[in-house]
Amino acid sequence: MRGSVGRVMDEVARGSAGRGVLRTQVRWSDVDLFGHVNNAAYLRYLDDARFALFDMGVDEDGQLTSSRLVVVKHEIDYLGRLTYRPQPIDVEVWAPRVGRTSVDMAYEVLDAARTVYLRARSRMVQLDAASGTPRPFTPDERAAFEAYPGDDPVLHAW
Fold first, then answer.
1. For 81-129, how does the pLDDT look when each residue is reduced to its tens digit (9 = 90+)?
2. For the chain, how long is the longest CA-to-CA vector?
3. What angle do CA 146, 97, 41 make, to 5 degrees?
4. Residues whose CB falls within 8 Å of the CB of residue 20, separated by 6 or more in sequence, listed in order
5. Which of 103, 90, 89, 91 has its CA nearest to residue 149?
6. How far apart are CA 74 and CA 43, in angstroms?
7. Half-sphere exposure of 83 toward its Cβ, with a 13 Å CA cutoff?
8. Positions of E strands within 5-147
9. N or C: the chain end with fewer CB closer than 10 Å?
10. pTM for this structure?
């Protein structure tokens, strides 16, 4: 596990089913005028979980690495109305598919009662830092993703 992404309440753990888990708080600023977590805040939760668990191009000292893993696609199902609360939420993340130059990340955002508020998938592509073109994962990069296996998330069709 790479560690916290900086907020005092964040914890990184391994959940049941081998998923990585970022435990975090809903911030007051995450809630929009409709009284629920805004869609942009959910993307930040997913981003925080990825950065906490994987080398996303910045090391623990904040220095750029040779890794340039970029998002090329998000698919998101909003399944419930998550509101501001003092209790933490969990962002579970796993890698259902690891390709030669790309990886799919799957996520669920849930509370302590295991109510799922969001289910999502992101496709990430590994780029060469110098050329900006896709490059194959190193064995260590591949092993980091393969440490969090799981099934594809069940998303609703359009």
1. 999 999 999 999 999 999 999 999 999 999 999 999 999 999 999 998 8
2. 46
3. 95
4. 1, 12, 13, 14, 49, 52, 53, 92, 93, 94, 148
5. 103
6. 9
7. 4
8. 11-14, 20-24, 67-78, 89-98, 102-110, 116-128
9. C
10. 0.87
Report all structural domains of the chain as residue ranges with CATH numbers, in order of start. 11-146 (3.10.129.10)
Query: Does 7 score more than 50 pLDDT?
Result: no
Is residue 80 within 8 A of residue 115, CB to CB? The reply is yes
Q: How far apart are CA 110 and CA 89, in angstroms?
A: 6
pLDDT reading at 18 higher than 90:
no
Report d(CA 48, CA 44) in Å as an integer.
Answer: 6
Instruction: Report residue 92 as tokens.
Output: 């579970």
Say whether pLDDT at 34 is over 90.
Answer: yes
Q: Which carries the bigger pLDDT value, residue 142 or residue 66? A: 142
Question: What does pLDDT average to over the chain?
Answer: 89
Tokens of 35: 């009284």
State which amino acid sits at residue 99: G
Q: Would you mind telling me the total number of residues written for the chain in this entry?
A: 158
